[in-house]
Amino acid sequence: MIIIFKMKRKRISWFGGDNALNIDTIDFEKMLHTCGYKMTVQRQAILDIIREEKKRHLCTEEIYDEVKKAYPGIGLATVYRTLQLFEKLGIVHHILLDDGCMRFQIMDSKEKHQHHHLVCDICGEVIDVEEDMLGTLEEKLLTEKGFTVKDHKVQFFGICKKCANEQNQ
Fold first, then answer.
1. Among 66, 105, 127, 148, which residue is least crowded by beta carbons within 10 Å?
2. Which 3 state secondary structure label does DSSP give 94?
3. For domain 112-169, which architecture applies?
4. What local confidence, expressed as pLDDT, does residue 108 receive?
């Protein structure tokens, strides 16, 4: 079962710009407290999984399965609500790939925008592209259209190196 939620409130920005916070040293408990929330054991466990598995692009159910190993009593609804809260607070953001799942990543303070993704059509591997390849386009949009780009999401679909090598053998 896949549940998709919409964010109705504006996301709070803790990351990016000149005052960027380092995700490795930030006190998430203090961040939650500042916004009127508590850092519960369940929230900490969910946050820990997302941080530890940041390259895996986990969906809600995968996060739930990992957290449930340490906290068998946690409910799937708790994971959904926590991810929704974390996204509202700007701690995580979601990406939608062609697999129909909403996947979550921790926000990275070193990135001006969300990073890009390469998605293999054969094995489904998702590869992060760290560099921002659209800087020139963003400048052109500002100059020619007066449009300031705040963020963007880019995904490239194709065949990864491993699958390409296997096809050529």
1. 148
2. strand
3. 2-Layer Sandwich (3.30)
4. 65
